[in-house]
Design brief:
The protein contains 19 helices and 2 strands.
Amino acid sequence: MPDKNTKKIFYGLVFLAFLSVTVFCFLTPAMSDDLFYGHTVMGANNFFDLFVQEYEHYMTHTGRSVAHIILRIFLYIGSKGLFNVVAGVVFTIQTLLIYANIDNRKKYDIRMYSLVILFLWFFDATMSDSVFWETGACNYLFTTTIMLAFITIYRKKLLLGLQEKPITAVGMFFLGLISGWCNENTSGGVILFLLILLYLKYRENKNFSFVKPWMITGLVGCIIGLGFLVLAPGNSSRAEQTVESDAHTGITAMAARFLKITINIEDHYLILTLMFAVLLVVIAYMMASKSKFLEMTGYMRLMGFIALVTVYVLVAVPRTPELRTFYGASIFLMIAVLNGIAVVANTVMLDSSDTIPQGLMQAFITSCTVVMGILLLFTYIKQGANLARIKREFDERDTYFAECAERGEEEITAPLLRPGWENRFSKAYESDISDVPFDPENPNDPVRWINKAYEDYYEIDTIDGVSREGWDKY
């Protein structure tokens, strides 16, 4: 049994996970799509108009209704502070769900939970897009946490095999429906995960006697949700536009996307991939037999496979995948690697040889955890200062836009961000206004789309970006 100090430290880490993300969310201004959706939401006469707007969006743009209705509600409430706190809570829930998916952990396992937090901070290459940015968080952090909750509950119930009340079948259907309606490739990965779980249970039992109503309704709900997502009429129009603008078509386009996905994995997820492979080798040396190796690495290998399929299914998407679409797959891969670390850290050597001294292995894992924690502390302080500087620039410029709009000015200039504060926790520079002047003959120039977002939001005819150097209007 863990002592009281262990529990206190564990709960302290949970609070630290919440606080760390919440602070960075407060230091992240509204930008990019936040402005587009915010301007649309401003036209809602009441709360229920948000669903009317989302229906129109579903029919003309995309099927991600779960993510976008969450976003619209936050924008309708109009309190960025509320979103910041909720995002911190959701991130914390996600850390606990990942922790719950580590099979070989101890009770109140401080080391493993610390690694969960550290993995998310170090190995999530999309954190600026998927956690701190409001639109991105609703599309990725929130939806992935929903899906992770669904598969965690489904797996735990399946393993326990307890008799459930009829209401459980209803609840699992709706949770499955929402999970399937979250994200194209990750929701597909969730369905594959459920099918493999059911197959493994069937192989163990040699019959279908284990099947209960909630297992069926959860799976069916998830499939229906994914159907609503991928069959949205808006997806067709977007796909047609993508095909028209794509340099390649057919097999050539798929090959190009396969290459792009592989390069992204090498550039952003190579360390996780190497850790997965090395851990399998280490565990193989630890285990006394092949059967024991397969048993101890079963969930690790399953999550690694789901991550692989979830990312490479993007080959079938008729456009070059953005890095943030890898978010769900990266969470699955983190779970796989963390399960491998837990086996190494919390399993007594089963091989009679002393090839890998247990004490040395324990010291190595603990030392790596401590080193990563120290590195994160330095990174957090340094990049937090940069985020604060960026936030100040955005706030000053937003105030300037609002004052110009109030005075009725129609054509204005505004400064770009000062250079030198770029960091992987902010997408501010890629979401900055353009210094390309407005051209009446090309009013919808895609280079100026951020300018257009500010123009629509503040109802100013033209906003041209200029260098910050020499700017003296504020």
